[in-house]
Design a protein that fits this description.
Blueprint (H helix, E strand, L loop, with lengths): L13 H11 L7 H14 L3 E5 L2 H11 L7 E5 L4 H8 L4 E5 L10 H4 L7 E4 L11 H11 L2 E5 L7 E2 L2 E2 L6 E5 L12 E5 L4 H11 L5 H5 L19 H11 L2 H24 L3 E3 L6 E2 L6 E4 L2 H13 L15 H5 L8 H9 E3 L8 H19 L4
Helix pairs in contact: 1-9, 2-9, 3-4, 10-14, 11-14
The protein binds pyridoxal-5'-phosphate.
Amino acid sequence: MRVPYHQPYLTGNELHWLQAALEEGAVAGDGPYTKKVQNFLAETYQFKHIYMTTSGTHALELAMLLLDLTPEDEVIMPSFTFPSTANAVLLRGARPVFAEIEADTLDLDPVKLSSKITSRTKAIIPVHYGGIGCRMAAIGELAAKYRLTVVEDAAQGVHASYRGRYLGSWGDIGCLSFHGTKNFIAGEGGAIILNTTDHDKLARVELMLHKGTNRRQFLQGQVDKYCWMELGSSYTPSDLLMAVLYAQLMEVTEITKRRKAHHHFYTAGLQKYADDGLIRITTIPVDCTSNYHLFYLLFRNETERDRVQIELRMAGIEAVIHYLPLHSSPMGQRLGYRPEDLPVTEQVSRTLLRLPMSTGLKQSDLEYVILTLQRILEKMATGST
Ligand SMILES: *Cc1c(COP(=O)(O)O)cnc(C)c1O
């Protein structure tokens, strides 16, 4: 039996909407399917303004472009994230400042965050790891006190919420991803959310999305020719991909229900080992409603983690590690960071293992993973490995 870490899940309606888009000639950016998904997301998740982008990475880059960063500016983020979060800041010439995560949620630690704030800090990028929301109330308080912009990296957080408010709607700006490995997929795609009613800001992001031109105003008949107005790039996704995403978004409830069932099955099968202190498993704080993006285990040490990963692999089960911390990566060290700067992040990175988590996993897959893992953990508990 083989259980891959991830396989894209199809609802069955993707081809229908893709064909409809092709027949309508909706192929380039900013077409009818882009509008459909924007409207759905804005209404379902209470986003003030949302614009689809070519990726989550590009949404982050656009967010940093909007902040008008200079080389003197600093942007605080966890080191335990995907390189896109830091690249977006570096591409604007500013400095990413890596802060520590909480050992339980693996999200930015608001308490340790405050020590990283300087007169140069411009923004904070909380990353909602695995769809578990950061402590946004505490982060928001700090941001208000020091007048910082909050840009949520909610790439993994679509459909998840914190204290009853959806992720992506807490910050000044939110960034989403619909990459093929996320819960709802376009293949490649993302979105930027602006939780503002400031018309100047909204007008500016529309220019930046369209190569720095006022093409959108032109298409809406507001100006009689379009020209270069701002710094910008090509950030609008093809409507064909948005048609695929539309099919996925029509099933957000069903997809989440399935992932929740996987999560509960894993939890039930592993709770005993967590209670015995052999492993820690993904926990969802009371303030959070998860979208069940990931299910991870944390081991007592790296050796045990690596051993379990190998044994699972020998049984055909693909369990995978996650981020190598940005601060201790070759690029992070070139920026002047040392591995020992963020001990919690280092420890988590060395001991974390993610179990297969695809929407389409079958009950027989889940049972096989748990039975295999139980066998391995039993051996580990009795010290016979
Ligand atoms: C996936 C992801 C991104 C990048 O999104 P893409 O759509 O793949 O560009 C950024 N940050 C985090 C935390 C992610 O998980």
